[in-house]
Automatic annotation (TrEMBL):
It comes from Zemynaea arenosa. The chain crosses the membrane at residues 20-39, 77-103, 149-171, 183-206, 212-230, 295-312. It comes from the Bacteria. This is Uncharacterized protein. The keyword Transmembrane helix applies. Keywords: Membrane, Transmembrane, Transmembrane helix.
Length: 321
């Protein structure tokens, strides 16, 4: 019997709303808003301005030469951007899932049942880690693909109804087909970068008796306050800002997709296409893997893996409610 497969199924059965219904509800809400706004935005007059008392109006049927091509390029290169709300939601879901992953089973005493089964603590904890790092991101990425494709075809469809048919240009654009692959390609980067937060939350979830959120978030904040106080009033020569950026914030925010650009201070212009001046997923993927060439990514991953190992050891004996 494939134990890990059934453990992953268990996580899905116990958190079906988090896995499926919550992202679907958010995606449908975003799609409804975009559908309503796109019809209002793309009307008979898409451009209207008044300069020196003279009104200028541009009809979609009178687009300047080359504008249709630029529109198609912008749509094909940036349509995955509509999934941003889902990616932000993924960060929150993974955070709170890991926070309660090991604590909830002690709180409701279900840990006694699961420990009666021939399943090791390591397999149980690793199934939860795999759910947070692989399964949940894949589910949200799949739903984000559906949302992005639907949004793209709504915008292109409204444009075609108003006289600007960009479908042929979209369907022959390499970016249209490469964008989903480039998003999936960044999943290994997310897995490596998110390990410190996953490890810290799992460790807290394995030993906290109550108020898990306060332990996970409150302790780092209090440590920061104490260090700043000691540094200021006792003249200790500590680089508190470095500690906050590389330890505190890294342990709390690494589940946010793309947050590695902020930590590694990657120039935003490196993420943009030089011609369209919009974010290019090919550039984003390239710079993401460049981050993995830096020691900070792997040091954080090693620390996160160590904390996950600590969570496995703690689960063996801390089974009280």
């Amino acid at each position: 019997m494939n134990t890990m497969k059934w453990l992953l199924r268990r996580e899905y059965w116990e958190h079906r709303g988090m896995y499926l219904w919550a992202p679907v509800a958010v995606a449908l809400s975003v799609l409804v808003l975009i559908a309503g706004a796109s019809y209002r935005m793309v009307s008979e007059k898409i451009g209207h301005a008044q300069i020196n008392g003279v009104e200028f109006t541009a009809s979609v049927n009178g687009l300047p030469p080359g504008m249709k091509t630029k529109m198609a390029q912008a749509l094909s290169a940036g349509y995955m951007g509509t999934a941003a709300p889902l990616m932000f939601m993924l960060a929150l879901i993974v955070f709170f899932y890991c926070l309660g992953a090991l604590y909830d089973e002690r709180r409701d005493r279900s840990i006694l049942f699961w420990k009666s089964l021939p399943v090791s603590d390591g397999e149980t904890v690793l199934s939860k880690v795999a759910s947070a790092l692989v399964v949940l991101p894949l589910v949200y990425i799949g739903i984000s693909f559906a949302l992005s494709f639907a949004t793209l075809f709504i915008l292109a469809g409204v444009g075609a109804a108003k006289g600007v048919n960009v479908f042929p240009l979209l369907l022959t654009s390499p970016s249209f087909y490469l964008a989903p692959l480039q998003v999936i390609a960044m999943l290994p980067v997310y897995i490596v970068w998110a390990l410190p937060t996953i490890g810290w939350l799992m460790l807290v979830s394995s030993w906290a008796r109550s108020k898990v959120f306060l332990w996970a978030v409150g302790v780092p904040i209090m440590v920061t306050i104490v260090l700043k106080f000691l540094n200021r009033f006792y003249g200790l020569d500590m680089d508190v800002d470095w500690f906050v950026d590389n330890v505190i914030l890294r342990s709390l925010s690494s589940t946010v997709p793309g947050i590695w650009f902020a930590f590694e201070k990657v120039d935003p212009f490196l993420l943009m296409d030089s011609e369209t001046h919009i974010v290019s997923l090919s550039h984003v993927a390239y710079e993401s893997y460049a981050v993995l060439a830096r020691p900070s990514a792997w040091v954080g991953a090693l620390v996160g893996a160590s904390m996950i190992y600590g969570a496995i050891r703690l689960r063996r004996w801390r089974d009280e409610g």
